[in-house]
Amino acid sequence: MEQSIASPTKFSARISPAAGGLDVLSRHEVARLRDAGTGGLHELLRRCALAVLTQGSATDDARALLDRYPDFDIQILQQDRGVKLELKNAPADAFVDGQMIRGVNELLFAVVRDIVYVATQMEAGSFDLEDSPGITHAVFEILRNARVLRPNVDPNLVVCWGGHSIGRDEYLYTKRVGYELGLRAFDICTGCGPGAMKGPMKGATIAHAKQRRRTNRYIGITEPGIIAAESPNPIVNNLVIMPDIEKRLEAFVRVAHAIIVFPGGVGTAEEILYLLGILLHPDNADLPFPLIFTGPRESAAYFEQIDRFLRLALGDQVAQRYRIVVDDPGEVARLVRKGIERVRTYRLDSKDAFFFNWGLHVEREFQVPFRPTHEAMAALNLHRDQPPHRLAADLRRAFSGIVAGNVKEEGMRAIEKNGPFVIDGDRDIMQALDALLASFVEQQRMKLPGSRYVPCYRVNNAS
Q: Which residues have C-beta within 8 Å of that of residue 407, sequence separation ≥ 6?
């Protein structure tokens, strides 16, 4: 007997921004947000808005979300008293007694703010994306416009990376670490989704409440290709949508005073390789950047495998840039505190800002958007005939392509049309890569538990 799936409850409404939200838009901006054609932003707005309205949804398939709400629409109304959003057939869970939940309201208008700002700045030529300093400046301007950058505040922002598809023990561990961080008055920044992106924020909220700390920041940084697959969790109170994954990653490392990595899958591996590729550059050799890999006792083997892969591919020197701590949330928080103290001293001595790490050298190959086509994936240079930081850059792109094939609409369609991506390189690196990916599949780190995973890749030269 075939089981039917209940239709989602929907709601239509006109929404005004909460206090301090988006106030006005120009007629040109409104027209672009309404236009679904070439150069129009309506479809982008619709996808990102739906992700916010379904925060907490148990899916990592961007297309499934759109299929569930095919008649959802959002329109911008510019009135004398400011901007309103008209929602049609929106998820009813975003409302209580006919009123939109305030946090959802704030994040919804943050979506409009970031989409409009990036589009208008690019159209006006305000961002110089042809060289590395120009790209960094664009990242800075987007973060400043989103009011993420706060002067006259001592370093206290901890970025937490990790998978959206993690086990219960791993999720509870991320909450314990977040609790220890919150007791020490640290703010939390994540990729804004579920799993290891939600747990640290949830733990920190309890600790912040115990410490009677009321100006807490739970920053979520995402990008259009991933937000629908990883809808913002309800704790995020400052959402930023960067235009692509590379600017999202640079935003993380520029605002972070320390980074903690929890267990995850290919997306987490991509983030690790991005940061280590930057830190391995000779210009960053003396720059303090606390980086801790941690998880419960059950995850010890996971980090051993990550450590082996990194050492094999990039050399044993890479291990000098991170610490591995197993099943000790208090020690993680203490190491973060000590590391951030060193960061503060370094920034004072070098006269660098606390709120944005200008001193970090990021090469353009870590900044240019990588479009994971079959041709681009096959052309990656995964050989050791290059400096380690450049090998890390292409390994990062390989993982980025797998992320796209797993959860991003464009990548999933490319796989359906042309088959799996083919990845090739040095034999021992490919063997280690294939084993690492196979372990992610076995541990259900590729998709949410209960989902059947069909690999979107094939590793050559691995046997």
A: 60, 61, 62, 226, 229, 230
What is the CATH superfamily name and number for domain 10-119? Answer: MoCo carrier protein-like (3.30.1850.10)
Q: Are 224 and 241 in contact (CB under 8 A)?
A: yes
**Alpha-carbon span 223 to 232, nearest angstrom:** 11
Mean pLDDT over 73-100 rounds to 86
Please answer whether residues 456 and 416 qualify as being in contact, where contact means their C-beta atoms are separated by less than 8 angstroms.
Answer: no
pTM listed for this prediction? 0.92
pLDDT > 80? residue 382: yes
- CB 198, CB 170: distance < 8 Å: no
- Residue 141 phi, psi (nearest 5): -65, -40
* Fold of the 152-364 domain: Rossmann fold (3.40.50)
Q: How far apart are the first and last CA of the chain?
A: 44
Distance of CA 117 to the CA centre of its chain: 19
| Tokens 């000790």 -> residue | 328
The rounded mean pLDDT for the chain is 90
pLDDT at 4: 35
Domain boundaries, the chain: 10-119, 152-364, 368-459
